[in-house]
Amino acid sequence: MVKEFSMDLAGRKLTVEVGRVAAQANGAAFMHYGDTVVLSTATASDKPRDGIDFFPLSVEYEEKQYAVGKIPGGFLKREARPSENAILTDRVIDRPMRPLFPKDYRNDVLLDNLVMSVDPDCSPELTAMLGSAIATCISDIPFDGPTASTMVGLIDGEFIINPTAAQKEESEMALTVASTRDKVIMIEAGANEVPEDVMIQAIFKAHEVNKEIIAFIDTIVAECGKEKHEYEHHEIDQEMYDDMVSFITPEAMEEAVFTDEKQVREENIRAIEEKLAERYADKEEWLSQVGEAVYAFQKKTVRKMILKDKKRPDGRDITEIRHLAAEVDCLPRVHGSALFQRGQTQVMTVTTLGSLSEAQRLDGMDQEETSKRYMHHYNFPSYSVGETRPSRGPGRREIGHGALAERALIPVLPTEDEFPYAIRTVSEIMESNGSTSQGSICASSLSLMAAGVPVKAPVAGISVGLVTGDSDDDYLILTDIQGLEDFFGDMDFKVAGTDKGITAIQMDIKIHGLTDQIIREAIARTKEARTYILHEVMNPVIGTARDHVGKYAPKISQYTIDPEKISEVIGKQGKTINAIIDETGVKIDIDESGRVDILSEDQEMIDKAIGIIKSIVEPLNVGDIYEGEVVRIMQFGAFVQVSPNKDGLIHISKLAKERVEKVEDVVNIGDRVAVKVLEIDKMGRINLKLEEKLS
C-alpha cells in the first residue's frame, strides 16, 4: 500500500512516498522536492560482520546523468566512478547519522540514494540527506533518529532557507546544518568572511527549521515505521576488562598515554598489549578482545583526566595551541611553496599556476558549474603516521579534506580579471597527529601568497574538541586537538577564516548533538586561536601576497580581439596559431568571447606574440612601416608577408631609388625587410615600398 506525506519546505512542496518502490529494502523513501526526485533506501545485513570492532556503515549518492537530460560521455556511455560532489555528499549524509546508530552494532548497513530527476532550485543533496534519515527511521534498523537537514544562504543580510540556484550564486554563505530533536549534530559551511555572530544566528535558524522537518518525519514514522529488530550486541567481557584494569592499573595507563610524543605513546600501548597477550595466552576468548579492551581503557583514562582533572595528554592548558612554525619557498623550482607545522602535524603545500584553459572540467549533476579554476588536492601518505600502506589514490577522507581547504580559500582568491590564472594547490601531509586539514589551510594560504597570488587576506584554520560528562553542562572544550583527543573525544569542530570572518566550517561529532552554549563557545574559541595563528605565526613569515609571480611561473598577458577574427588567428587547421607558437614558444588560449591569453616565462616572447596577433586582427595603416619576410619573387616585384594572413607587393620600381634590373639584385626569398604601406586598394591589395633590408 502506497502512503504519501507532504509538507511545505521553504516555499516548495516536499513529498515522501512510502511503499511505492523498493519494497524489499529495510526502509525506502521515494522523495520529491519540487521536480527533484531521489530514491533513498536503507538496508542492513541479517547478521553482524565477523572479526570487526567498528560499525560498518556505507553511504552512496548515485548521480545519474538522465536526471539532468544528459547522456554520459566516454566510450561506454555509462556513469563512471562517483564525482567529487557525490563523494562529498556521501560524507555529509554519513556524518550526522553515524553517531545515532548503536555503538555496538556490527551489521552492515547501506544507505543508498539514487538521484533520478534534478530541479536546480531544489537541492538533490539535501533531498538525499532527508531521504536517508526517513528511510532509516521507518526501517527496522536500530537508529536513534530522526535527523533533519537544512541549507541556509545569506543575501543582503537576510537568511535564505534552502536557496534556489540563482540565490546560491548571490549568497555570501552556503551553510548546511543537521539536527536531532533538540541539538545540532552536523555543520558544514563555506562563507565569504561571514562574522561569527552572523554564522551562529544562521546555525540556530537552520536548527529551528529542522525541528519542523523532524515533526513531519515523526508523522511518517508513526504510520509507516517498523519495529526495530534485535541484534547481537558486541560487548567486551566485563570479567576480562576488570582483570585487565587490576593488572595494568589506571595509574600505569595514565602514565602510558600522557606524553607529548605520539611514537612514545604508541610504543607504551604496544608494550601493554604484549603483556596482556602473554597473560591471556591460555584464554582465547579473552585474548581476541585485547585490542578493543585496551582501546576502551585508554579512552576512559583520557576522558577522565581531561574532564575531571583538566589535564591533557601532552600537558598543555585547555586553550593552549601546540608549538607552531611556518616557512615559505621550501622548494626551489615550483611556483610557490610553504611548510606549516603544529606540534607533530606537518603540511607542505605547493602552488602551481597555469592558463585558464587548464581549469578542471566538471561532469556532474550541476548544470550551472561546468569548470573550476581553483583546485585544492590533499594527500595523506601512510608514512605520515609511520605506516606502510601503499598508495592507491585519494580516498573519501582525502577528497573531503581537500574540498574543505578549497572551500576555505576560495573567498579570498582574486577574480579571473584580476588574476587570469588557473590555480592548483597540493597539500602533502608530511607528519600527522591531528587536524591536518586545518594545517593544510594555513600552509596553502602561505603558499598562495608566496606564489604571488593576490589573495584578499590570509586564511588560517583551527580545530577544537570536546569531552562531555553525564549532563549537558558537564563538558570541556579543547583548543587545537591532537589525534588522541580526536579519537577519544566527542567532537572535531573545524573553523577557517580571516581576521574579518569565517570562510569554512566542518563539524563532526560522536554524540547525539551539541547545545547552543557549546556551539557558541566552540566558535569563539576558534576565533581566538585563528587570530593568534594569523598574527603571531603566519603574518611574520609572509603577511601579504608578493607583487609578482615567481621566476619559474608563467607570465600571462591578455589581449582581446573581435570574436569574428578568431578564425583568422587560428588559421586553417590551426596553421596560423601554431606558427606563432613555434616562433615564440608561448602558449596561447583563445575563448569564444575573443579573450586571448598568452603565457610564457619570457615576457619578451609574450610581447612578440601579441604583436603578431595584432598584425593579424588589426588593419594596416597607409604610411606606417612594418617588418616582414619576403615569401615570393616575381619578375615585377617581391611579395612580403607583413603578418601571417597579409601579403603585400613591393613593385620592382619601389625596391630602390635607382633603377633595378632584377628583383633578386635587391632581395631574395627569406629576407627580413622593413616596408612602408603605400596603398591598400579597393580589392584589399597592399602595395609596399622597401624601407630597409634587415637580413
Major sheet summary line: 8 strands, antiparallel
Number of strand segments: 29
**How would you state the average pLDDT, rounded?**
94
Based on Cα principal axes, name the global outline: elongated
Structural category is: alpha+beta
Count the domains.
Answer: 5
Organism: Anaerostipes rhamnosivorans
Subcellular location: Cytoplasm
EC number: 2.7.7.8
Binding site for Mg(2+): 486, 492
Description:
Mg(2+) binds at residues 486, 492. Keywords: Cytoplasm, Magnesium, Metal-binding, Nucleotidyltransferase, RNA-binding, Transferase. With 695 residues, the chain is α+β, with helices and mostly antiparallel strands. The protein has five domains: 3-224, GHMP Kinase, N-terminal domain (Ribosomal Protein S5, domain 2, 2-Layer Sandwich), CATH 3.30.230; 238-309, Arc Repressor Mutant, subunit A, CATH 1.10.10; 324-465 and 518-541, Ribosomal Protein S5, domain 2 (2-Layer Sandwich), CATH 3.30.230; 555-617, Ribosomal Protein S8, Chain: A, domain 1 (2-Layer Sandwich); 625-693, Nucleic acid-binding proteins (OB fold (Dihydrolipoamide Acetyltransferase, E2P), Beta Barrel), CATH 2.40.50. It contains 16 helices and 29 strands. The strands form six sheets. Strands 8-7-9-10-21-20-18-19 form an eight-stranded antiparallel β-sheet, with helices on both faces. A six-stranded mixed β-sheet has the order 1-2-3-4-6-5. Strands 11-12-13-17-16 form a five-stranded mixed β-sheet. A hairpin with a 2-residue loop joins β7 (148-155) and β8 (158-161).
